Amino acid sequence: MKRLKVCFFIAAIFLGSNVASAKIGDNQTDYENRHEVAVSYGFFSNSSVISTFDDILTIMVTGGHGYFDNEKFIGPISAEYFYRVNNWLGVGGIGAYATQGKDIMSEFSKTTPKEGTARLNYYTLMPALKADWLRRPHFGMYSKLGLGATIFTDSHSYNDGTKNSDSAVGFTWQASLLGLEAGSNSLRGFLEFSLIGEQGSIVIGLRHKF
C-alpha cells in the first residue's frame, strides 16, 4: 500500500510538472508571434531636414529671392510589416508618407505679399530588417534598418494662375539604433531613436503581433 502511495505521489509530481511545462511552452509560443504590423508618426525625417536646408540654400544663392514662408510639415506617417524568420530576426517592409505646404514669397520680407503656394509630397518604400536583441513577455528592445527610395513631387500654384510641377526619385533609409516596446504579448506601444531616417529621428507608434 505504501508503495502504491509513493508511486501515485511520484506520478502526480510528474504530471504536474508536465502541465506546468506545457503552460510555459504555450506562453512562449504566444510570445513568439511570427507576424508584426505597426503604424507610427515621426519627427525630423530625412525629407524635412533636406527641405529645410534646401530653403536656406535658396535664400543664400538668390540673395533673399524665392523665399518660402508659413511652412507646415506633416509626417512622416508610416506603416510597416515584419515576418519573424527565427527567434530574433524579422524581415519585412516600411511604407511612409509626408507632406509639406508653404507660401511662395518674392523676397525675404514679412511685408511682401505671397506670390502663390507650394505643395510637396514624399512617398517612401523600404525593404527592412528588425533585430530583437532583448525580448521579454511585456517588454522588448530592438534595432531596425530599412533601405529604399522616396518619390518626391513638387507642385507650385501662383496667384496669376500659373502652375508647374516636378518629381524625382531618391535613395533613402531608416536606421533605428534603439527601439523600445512595451505592452502585452500582442499589442505594444513603441519608441525609436535614430541619427536620421525617413521615418524620423524620433518615431512613436503602436505595434500588433499575431
What does this structure look like?
This protein is α+β, with helices and mostly antiparallel strands and 210 residues long. Helix content is 22%, strand content 60%. It has helices spanning 2-31, 46-62, and strands spanning 35-43, 67-84, 89-105, 114-136, 139-158, 163-183, 187-197, 202-209. It has an eight-stranded antiparallel β-barrel. It is elongated. The model is unreliable at 1-30 (pLDDT under 50).
Short key terms for the protein model shown above:
single chain; alpha+beta; 8 strands; 60% strand; elongated
Outline of this structure?
With 210 residues, the protein is of the alpha+beta class. The chain has two helices and eight strands; from the N terminus they run αβαβββββββ.
The total count of helices amounts to 2
Number of strands: 8
Q: Give the distance, in angstroms, between the N- and C-terminal Cα atoms.
A: 51 Å
Q: Unreliable stretches, pLDDT < 50, 5 or more residues? A: 1-30
- The overall average pLDDT, rounded, is 81
Indicate the radius of gyration in whole angstroms: 26 Å
Order of helices and strands: HEHEEEEEEE
What's the shape? Answer: elongated
Topology summary:
Elements: H1 2-31, E1 35-43, H2 46-62, E2 67-84, E3 89-105, E4 114-136, E5 139-158, E6 163-183, E7 187-197, E8 202-209
Antiparallel strand pairs: 1-2, 1-8, 2-3, 3-4, 4-5, 5-6, 6-7, 7-8
